[in-house]
Amino acid sequence: MAFAALGQRERACALLDLINPVNRARDAVGVATYKVEPYVMAADVYGVAPHIGRGGWSWYTGSAGWMYRLVVESVLGLRLSTTPEGARLYLTPCLPAGWSGFTIDYRYRETPYHIEVTQGSVHDGVAGVAVDGVAQPDGAVPLVNDARAHQVTLHLLLSAA
Known about the structure:
The protein has four helices and ten strands, in the order H-H-H-E-E-H-E-E-E-E-E-E-E-E. It is α+β, with helices and mostly antiparallel strands. It has helices spanning 2-5, 9-19, 28-34, 61-75, and strands at residues 42-45, 55-58, 78-83, 86-91, 101-108, 111-120, 128-131, 134-135, 140-143, 150-157. A hairpin with a 2-residue loop joins strand 5 and strand 6 (111-120). The longest helix has 15 residues, at 61-75. 23% of the residues lie in helices and 35% in strands. The chain folds into two domains: 2-59, no CATH class; 76-157, Maltose phosphorylase, domain 3 (Sandwich). It starts with a helix and ends with a strand.
């Protein structure tokens, strides 16, 4: 999360790959070494023989919550802000250069938002956020509860990081 906050997207995502439990069980050797469920977070992974690579303290809810925040908030960059003036969704992804983007379906009360994030060069289009084709000059998505589907696009420009 700290590397994402610093804008060091390659380092942030490399560390995410390192701690992602799915990556510990991609083959039979990994499963035999890790020895815990690959679909839940382990609080720790042993680094001392004879248990190097074995997961420990699985189903530890604190680590799962932090992993969720790492992925959703720090890497995908979704942040909800509510004020008396209304709710807004801020999109500040920290994606590695190898990712062309992602899509996510977000629901605000009864209203679905389909979000498509792309990243590329300036030749791929203008950077910024649009909601239903309307550019959002402040980069935020105003959330309304009108029960109608909305399309959100965010185009990021690749930069050295």
